Amino acid sequence: MVINELLQLGVEKLGEREYLDPLLESIIILSYLQNVDKSYIYTHGDKEIPEEIVDKFLNFIEKRKKGYPLSYILKEKEFYGLDFYIEEGVLVPRPDTEILVEWIINKVNNEFKDKPLNVVELGTGSGCIALTLAYYLKNIKVFAVDIDEVALKVANINRDNLNLNDRVSFYKGDLFNGISSLQLEGKIDIIVSNPPYIPTNAIPELQIEVREYEPKKALDGGEEGLLFYKKIVPESKKYLKSGGILAFEIGYDQGIKVKKLLEKNGFKDISIIKDFQGLDRVVVGRLG
Ligand code: GLN
């Protein structure tokens, strides 16, 4: 079978699902399997494909048709200009989270430029937030926590790939328990988290990719989705320096509730930042 025939087969098989781009996804999967650029696929339509690649391609197309995330097939996701290794068991980095990262990068560059800072990240998953911050901000040290073994394995792979071993450390544990032995109380400049925030009963309404294949542990924020904010906010006061910053990703309808939670705990300068769709996505505050 040649490239064009195989792509056509991919398009036919994927075509029944309306929100995929069947041709683009077929090209991406084939270029991954052949280890070539997409442009090679475009320009070599009559090139013969080895049978084993044909089999792998059709296997991936079948998985994808059932909603298996493309990032788990390609074992990779780009985030804020960096390539992250990804596998089943960790949340796929999302463009929404880039807003949180961008806000922190700007804040540090404007307010704390070149000052050594300690940053804590709770629930690091693939490590994309911790590692992206450390990659772009040379003055920070990051202590990142996750409770999950797969997440820590993946985060460590990404840290090695990005050569950030000297400034990012990963710890296993439940939120602040992961760093409780480090004596960081009162020494942290920034605490950041994209915790699980989907209300338990809203999980069945998520896209099939997310609800069927991404880790529930990384999504489920309890009855109202606010469980982790309620745990993190009061505890963060022990760890932050006075004037330190707490920055969260939030669900689109949680802005006001998380803002109130911060206010109740004595945080000041609270802002809610919107995502590309104009929905509330990030809440930040400063310990007064
Ligand atoms: N933004 C993710 C989603 O909508 C949820 C991530 C999270 O719970 N932190 O699928």
Explain how this protein is built.
This protein is an alpha/beta fold. The protein has 2 domains: 3-66, Helicase, Ruva Protein, domain 3 (Orthogonal Bundle); 87-287, Rossmann fold (3-Layer(aba) Sandwich), CATH 3.40.50.150. The protein contains 11 helices and 9 strands. It has helices spanning 3-14, 22-34, 38-43, 51-65, 70-74, 95-111, 128-136, 149-161, 208-213, 227-239, 255-264, and strands spanning 76-79, 82-85, 117-122, 140-146, 168-172, 188-193, 240-249, 267-274, 280-287. Strands 5-4-3-6-7-9-8 form a 7-stranded mixed beta sheet, sandwiched between helices. The protein has a two-stranded antiparallel sheet with strand order 1-2. β3, α7 and β4 form a beta-alpha-beta unit. The termini are far apart. The structure holds glutamine.
Question: Quick summary of this structure?
Answer:
The protein has 288 residues and is α/β, with parallel strands linked by helices.
CATH topology term of the largest domain: Rossmann fold
| Low-confidence segments | none
Total beta strands: 9
Averaged pLDDT: 96
Tally the structural domains. Answer: 2
H-E string: HHHHHEEHEHEHEEHHEHEE
Q: What structural class is derived from the secondary structure elements?
A: alpha/beta
Supply the CATH class of the largest domain: Alpha Beta
Question: What is the helix tally?
Answer: 11
Largest sheet: 7 strands, mixed
Radius of gyration from the alpha-carbon trace, in angstroms: 21 Å
Strand order of the largest sheet: 5-4-3-6-7-9-8
**What percentage of residues falls in helices of 4 or more residues?**
40-55%
Quick one: CATH superfamily of the largest domain?
Answer: Vaccinia Virus protein VP39
Estimated share of beta-strand residues: 15-25%
